[in-house]
Automatic annotation (TrEMBL):
One of its GO terms (molecular function) is hydrolase activity. The keyword Hydrolase applies. Pfam families: Abhydrolase_6 (PF12697). PANTHER family: AB HYDROLASE-1 DOMAIN-CONTAINING PROTEIN (PTHR43798:SF29), MONOACYLGLYCEROL LIPASE (PTHR43798). Residues 29-258 form the AB hydrolase-1 domain. The keyword Hydrolase applies. This is Alpha/beta fold hydrolase. Residues 1-22 are annotated as: Disordered. It comes from the Bacteria. It comes from Streptomyces anatolicus.
Amino acid sequence: MATAQLNGVTIAYDDTGEPEPQAGPRPTLVLLHGHPFDRSMWTPQREAFAATHRVITPDLRGYGASTVVPGTTDIAAFAEDLAALLDHLEVREFALGGLSMGGQIAMECYRLFPERVTGLLLADTFPAAETPEGKAARNSLADRLLAEGMKGYADEVRDKMVAPYNEEASAYVHRMMLAAPPEGAAAALRGRAERPDYRALLTRAAVPALVVVGRDDTYTPVADAEAMHAALPDSVLSVVESAAHLPNLERPAEFNAAVRAWLTRVTAPHA
């Protein structure tokens, strides 16, 4: 793990697969975790792609080893942190992926600096703005996390995050959720409640895209993924069987195969 002081906070990150200077640059793959997780959720992907790509996986502000900022963290703040981190690492262009909240942050990155993004991976996410009911629910959950901590919430959503038949992944994800800082998770929930609608943006995306979803995901069902796939001009849809909301951990071999095929379609970015 490394850290960088950016935008007034400390961002922790892993930077895997950077070659020796004489070997020349590798394509860069950036992966953004969901809520309420941390960069370790991408361990199977870092290990799988480090031989061919420079893989950068940050802890978003409020999560993992990054600075916990209370209040409200909007989607743009996460995107601006990422841009600052990549500037710090002297990475200009990169393939960008995110899962759930991370996917929404990836869409915000494409809105703010599309010229830097060479490909989009959108996993178990959705582009629509929050409904009034959804806003109320996210703010209520934020209040609950601040009052009660993470355990009750983590226990309740465990079997929606990871299908219960994926026992090893379920246990790992539950530990990640329990370790999440309540203040950071609450701030992100309040920010997501006010996120913009990205559906029109997707229709203008001019890069190769991959949409992935677990067959048994109830948070972002297959129908949502199909709608994103239809909206994106150049996309492939991959439905991962026997997985729920975190197919990258539940079925890493199948998830990685889809990502590998997507990366062959992405123009190689350079650091």
